[in-house]
Amino acid sequence: MNAKVDHFDPIVFERPGVTLTRSQVDAFGREIDALREEIMADLGEQDARYIRRLVRTQKGMELAGRGLLFLGVLPPAWLAGTALLSVSKILENMEIGHNVMHAQWDWLGDPALDSSTYDWDNTCPAEQWKHSHNYMHHTFTNVVGKDRDVGYGIMRMSEEQRWNPAYLFQPAYNWVLASLFQWGVAFHDLEVERVLKGEKSFAEYRAQRRKIMKKVRKQVGKDYLLFPLLAGPFAPWVLAGNATANLTRNLWSYLIIFCGHFTEHAEMFSEAEIENETRGQWYLRQLLGSSNLEGGPLFHIMSGNLSHQIEHHLFPDMPSNRYKQVAPKVREIAERYGLHYNSGRLSRQFGTVLKRINRLALPSRRKPKNATV
Amino acid sequence: MNVITASNSQSGTPGLIRRLGKALSTPFDPEDYLALFDPLQSAREIRARVIGVQRESDQAVTLTLQPNRLWKGHRAGQHVLLGVEIEGVRHQRCFSLSSAPGGAPTISVKRQGRGGVSDHLVNRCREGDLLTLAEPAGEFVLPDPVPERLLMVTAGSGITPVHSIVKSLLASNFDGKVTWVHFERRYRDLMLSDSLAQLRRDPRLDLRLVLSGDSPRDGDQAGRLDEHWLTDNIADAAARTVFTCGPAGFLDTVMDWHGEHGRAPLFHERFKAAPVVAGEGGRLYFSRTGGQAEAAAGVSLLEAAEQAGLKPKHGCRMGICHTCKCKVSKGRVRDLQSGKSRELNGQEVRICVHAAEGDVELDL
Which residues does the UniProt record annotate as the domain 2Fe-2S ferredoxin-type (chain B) (predicted)? Predict the structure, then answer.
């Protein structure tokens, strides 16, 4: 779209290759709002059946997986058990837990799928996740210095982050983060760097850490102590299966999540840019800061529908099974406004993430506009 | 026999096994997994299976329920918040339990014709369906000791809690007298008629049916309640402890009569919210979501929040189940039922029956 220079309709959104006026941004916002209304008004029995069937499938796979691991001394049983447990943990964390805690299913009125009471099979306590993720990350998406998911406080994912020599090692410790992803998530909301800077009280930090440790004890107790003990002489196979399932879930969720906001064309924003942001501008930032992954129906479910990262960021509390349906409409609207709709296959998207990690390990040639952190 | 053994072993589950189950299923409950095999299993809510559907008429049914072990029974006359899934969404409404305590609980439901929970239960509920129940609640119960002379005055679906009370009373060693007058338009509207016919045989009960729209059969009367009816038709009515339940206008008549003549206590159960008393209206501030909204006079905080696009938790929408309780950080609210206005600072109110008077900050 060509923007006219107009006193009464100033340009309020400027990014490489796109310039939008106030009325264009507002119109864009209204179109996205209308999409949301359309889907939310249509929710009903089919959606309820989807999530309930998914929960049953996941719980069934988990039981079967843990059962087979008791026979893990037989290699096929160990492999099948570990695979089932891995898939069930992925489903529970991603397509169920993450989305339930986003209040996507609150409209069902089912206390088992309610955002205020659900807790997931992960070392991160639900309450802290909802703060760091639903509030901080989803409100301030890709705003460097505000969205702590930009590098999780340990990686340099944007030119705007000031370089230091530790980042030279990030191509290596990136893989450590990937393997221990649930632990990174668990300690994320502690905001250690803010405690060190004196922005956050030590008392608050300590209270949060106590809650994390309580959950960690339960999670570790289950997977690494009780289930192996229950297996008696077969403890080593159960232990190995559980550890492998947790590792698989960590690597997979890392992979999907890093492709959500750190691909080549995913844009970063500065704090100045979000001052007095309107709803339309917020939508624009969500669209341009997120990237999608292409694949079949099973791939979308296994990614918790975060393969529709753009749609998830525009509509974080819309039931995830509906993202596939809105995606083509979002894409059509984006293209009409001349906005890049960032979508590609997993291999390609992740390739660009690795490129970003490697490139930003080195100091930037150009001076950042307003470097933070 | 089987049932008894099963329930004994369940309630007697040693704490250690329970704790081990919890530790193995953390952060969920063992019941979340057991529910794969038995959908009644739950650690967080009372689920009940419908094991009997008795058509009372084309307008009403009595449902017999088999609740899971979280159900701890009820006191005769109490109501329960019942949840049912309609098109995927849990809908909740309060119903009086019509059964006497002890056996399988029953509820008797009359169609309302507005497409809500009652209509769903009357039209669609089948044996095997699953419902949810909250803890039974309500103070519409017999006092201890039980008064010797009791007068029950009911109309329409107001029959259900009193049926529970009378049935349990007659099953006890009660040696007083209970008079029960029930007002109904026509015979075919009468719920629980089979059970009434049985109860009627008990000499301790004097049950009178008063019909306003049908010619009365053997022993029943024609007529409708007015301010003289009780004095004219019940010997010594004013000296009896009264239990009354029925539509709002009916209740008002009974309570006005009692206010003027009654010399013994009166207990009443109201199914519908009292007529809304107009408040002043005001502005709502939602501290959790950051929005605000104008609330017109007499519009409940719940409705106003819903109009503003929020979806606060709620149940009965008539002030009895307390599901919608929400903290008011500060502000003045008017109780739509009592008409009383009060200042709040961090207390919880049922937002379905309170309206704003001026600025109100809600934890929504």
Answer: 282-364
Assess if residue B38 is contained within a domain: no
Within 8 A of B315 by CB-CB distance, chain A residues are: none
Which residues of chain A approach chain B closer than 8 Å at the C-beta? Answer: 43-49, 56, 59-60, 62-63, 106-112, 117, 119-121, 126, 215, 218-219, 221-222, 226-227, 230
Range of the domain at B90: 45-133
- Beta pairing class for A292-294 and A343-345: parallel
Do B299 and B346 share a domain, yes or no?
A: yes
| Yes or no, beta carbons of B90 and A110 under 8 Å apart | yes
Measured in angstroms, the CA of A193 and the nearest CA of chain B are apart by 27
Residue B17 lies in a domain: no
- The answer to whether the Cβ–Cβ distance between B89 and A107 falls below 8 Å is yes
| Minimal Cβ distance to A218: which of B27, B36, B83 | B27
Determine the pLDDT at residue A95. 98
Pairwise CA distance, residues A106 & B175, whole Å: 52
Which residues of chain B have a CB within 8 Å of the CB of A85?
A: none
Domain co-membership, B156 together with B228: yes
Return the minimum-mean-pLDDT range out of A98-102, A236-240, B34-38, B54-58. B54-58
pLDDT in tens, A202-258: 999 999 999 999 999 999 999 999 999 999 999 999 999 999 999 999 999 999 999
How far apart CA B188 and CA B193 sit, in angstroms, is: 9
- Please say if the pLDDT value at position B8 is more than 50: no
Q: How far apart are CA B246 and CA B224, in angstroms?
A: 13
Above 50 in pLDDT, residue A260?
yes
Nearest-CA distance from B235 to chain A in Å?
A: 50
Count how many domains chain B has: 3
Q: Which residues pair with A143 in a beta bridge?
A: A269
A366 DSSP assignment: S
DSSP structure string for B330-359: EEEEEETTT--EEEESSEEEETTSEEEEEE
Kindly report the CATH number assigned to the domain that includes residue B73.
2.40.30.10
Which contiguous run of DSSP H or E holds residue B209? strand B205-211
Residue B281 region by backbone torsions, left for phi larger than 0, else alpha for psi between -120 and 50, else beta: left
Q: What angle do CA B55, B57, B63 make, to 5 degrees?
A: 30
Q: What is the ipTM of this complex?
A: 0.91
Q: What three-state secondary structure class fits B50?
A: strand
Residue B139 lies in a domain: no
Domain final position from B270, B305, B326: B270
From B245, B184, B243, select the one nearest B56 (Cα to Cα).
B184
Which CATH number covers residue B255?
A: 3.40.50.80
Q: Which helix (H) or strand (E) holds A54?
A: helix A45-69
CB-closest option in B44, B87, B89 to A111: B44
Instruction: Dig out the tokens for A184 from the structure.
Output: 């990174």
Contact B310, B290 (CB under 8 A): no
Question: Within a domain: residue B257?
Answer: yes
Cβ of A43 and B24 within 8 Å?
no
Q: Which residues in chain B are contacts of A221 at CB distance < 8 A? A: 23, 26
B293 and B261 in a common domain: no
Report the C-alpha gap between B9 and B17 in whole angstroms.
Answer: 12
